[in-house]
Amino acid sequence: MTIPDPPIVDISTLTFTDVPLKPTAGPGPYTRRDLYEERQTPEAGIGAFAATSIPSGTRIFCEESIVMLPDEAGHVDVYNAVKSLGEEKQVMYWALAASTKASRDVAWIDRLRGGCDEDISSTFNDLVSSHEQAWSIYETNRFTCKSVDGCTKSLGIFPQAARLNHSCSPNVFHRYNPVINRLTVHALRDIEKGEELLTSYIDICHPTVVRRQILKHWGFRCRCSACDSPDDDEDFRRKRIEDLFSKINKREGKRVKNGSKWTDKEYKRSLGAVVKCIRLLEKEGMEETDTLGVMYTDGVRLAVKVGEEENAVEWAEKVVEIERKCLGEDSKEFVAAKELLEMARGVQRAKAEGS
Ligand SMILES: [Zn+2]
């Protein structure tokens, strides 16, 4: 086992333009780097800022991971993965922010000691520190990466996306796209030149107190417009959205169990909750795939059940637009949305022909 080099990287000198460009063999959107720049923020480290006005739905960038490991990877796996990177990528990795506290689980230290040569004792503490630093960076910057079938979860490090700071009212949306093996970042609305690009690290439906608790993982207190809003109604609406989500999911769980026993009235009751939730989400500007997209998709299925084909088609068209905006046409979610729209149109056609 070799002794690690200490992570001596002065992040103030690492600007966005220093990051080497990949060969331009890939499709255009993969290498696009002209829409934003990285610079220091007053309180939240380095952030990403629009270098020009960016229209809603634009794919701002997408990138490959430099480290991707199974969900259950531990300190030693992470450290070994980082040390196996080429020099440039190691520099990128060590330059990322580390804001999580040391893990309480220290059993890995004994395993590490067991695997070391006997003469390492004088530098063992340095080795442990380097493992802890690698782990803290990993914990702070990892993104969830699900396989195409959604069954396998990995965690990946994407140095560009890692620079995106958090907001509970985000203006961009990120997700790993397993079809192209890249994490994509899209504009959720029109963004003006100079605005900071902000994504959400968490489920934005939670009320403020819960969001604050979850965000402690990254060691900061969110100062976004939703968290600092003097408007209690906004928090109430998010709580209501969360309650409606939970109620709709519970009802859907019951329906799957005894689907054949559901009456028209029960489908309509679920549809009523979905419509209420859609109105609240639109009022809050929470118009991304995990919130509004999910609700419109539920709405389409329920509308078909109760014979509201026109609504089903209109809502399915909304799902297609939301997936295009948040994830792009090369995502499996976009393909599924197109299928949903075809299904709704098919039902509408069949009814028109039958009447
Ligand atoms: Zn916030």
TrEMBL record:
Residues 27-202 form the SET domain. InterPro entries: SET_dom, SET_dom_sf, SET_domain_protein, TPR-like_helical_dom_sf. Gene3D superfamilies: SET domain, Tetratricopeptide repeat domain. It holds the Pfam family SET. This is SET domain-containing protein.
